[in-house]
């Protein structure tokens, strides 16, 4: 198989995205913990671990292709003044991942890189599950009675 530069580009973009996601989820976990929402913080830390696993798998694929991994640019963390606002930002992050992984899987398959196509397809499905879980969590928060204000910030 000939190495396709666009596949390498998708792998690099995906790696940057995953490291950015780790940063965002850890920041959100820290905010949730500061607001006294330890169960929420624990869930967000678990999301960060899952995103780090994605980064490890992308790194391994880049190395298998003989490319040096390098997350080129991390996107700024999107925050908010409530747990729901944090989760909305996380849902937007997952939507970006879904678009990236769908496009990357389709391109990789077109150029005959089945290993990368399978990796991107697997990441797509995992991110889809994350997006569903976030949507359910947001729905639960919307259905719950209004949360008390913690330290002057809506939790």
UniProtKB/TrEMBL annotation:
Alphabetic keyword roster: Coiled coil, Heme, Iron, Iron storage, Metal-binding
Required cofactor(s): heme b
Protein name: Bacterioferritin
Domain Ferritin-like diiron: 1-145
Ranges in a coiled coil: 38-65
Biological role stated in the UniProt entry: Iron-storage protein, whose ferroxidase center binds Fe(2+), oxidizes it using dioxygen to Fe(3+), and participates in the subsequent Fe(3+) oxide mineral core formation within the central cavity of the BFR protein shell.
Catalytic activity: 4 Fe(2+) + O2 + 4 H(+) = 4 Fe(3+) + 2 H2O; Fe(2+)(in) = Fe(2+)(out)
InterPro entries: Bacterioferritin (IPR002024), Ferritin-like (IPR012347), Ferritin-like_diiron (IPR009040), Ferritin-like_SF (IPR009078), Ferritin_DPS_dom (IPR008331)
Membrane-spanning intervals of the chain: none
EC number: 1.16.3.1
Family: Belongs to the bacterioferritin family.
PANTHER family tied to this protein: BACTERIOFERRITIN (PTHR30295:SF0)
């Amino acid at each position: 198989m000939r190495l396709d530069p666009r596949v390498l580009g998708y792998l690099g973009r995906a790696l940057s995205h995953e490291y950015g996601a780790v940063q965002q989820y850890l920041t959100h976990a820290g905010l949730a913990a500061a607001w006294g929402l330890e169960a929420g913080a624990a869930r967000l830390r678990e999301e960060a671990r899952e995103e780090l696993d994605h980064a490890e798998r992308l790194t391994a694929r880049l190395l298998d292709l003989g490319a040096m991994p390098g997350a080129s640019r991390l996107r700024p963390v999107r925050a908010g003044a409530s747990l729901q606002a944090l989760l909305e930002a996380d849902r937007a992050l997952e939507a970006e991942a879904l678009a990236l992984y769908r496009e990357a899987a389709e391109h990789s398959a077109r150029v005959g890189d089945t290993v990368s196509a399978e990796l991107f397809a697997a990441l797509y499905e995992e991110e889809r599950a994350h997006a569903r879980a976030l949507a359910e969590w947001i729905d639960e928060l919307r259905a719950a009675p209004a949360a008390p204000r913690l330290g002057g910030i809506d939790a």
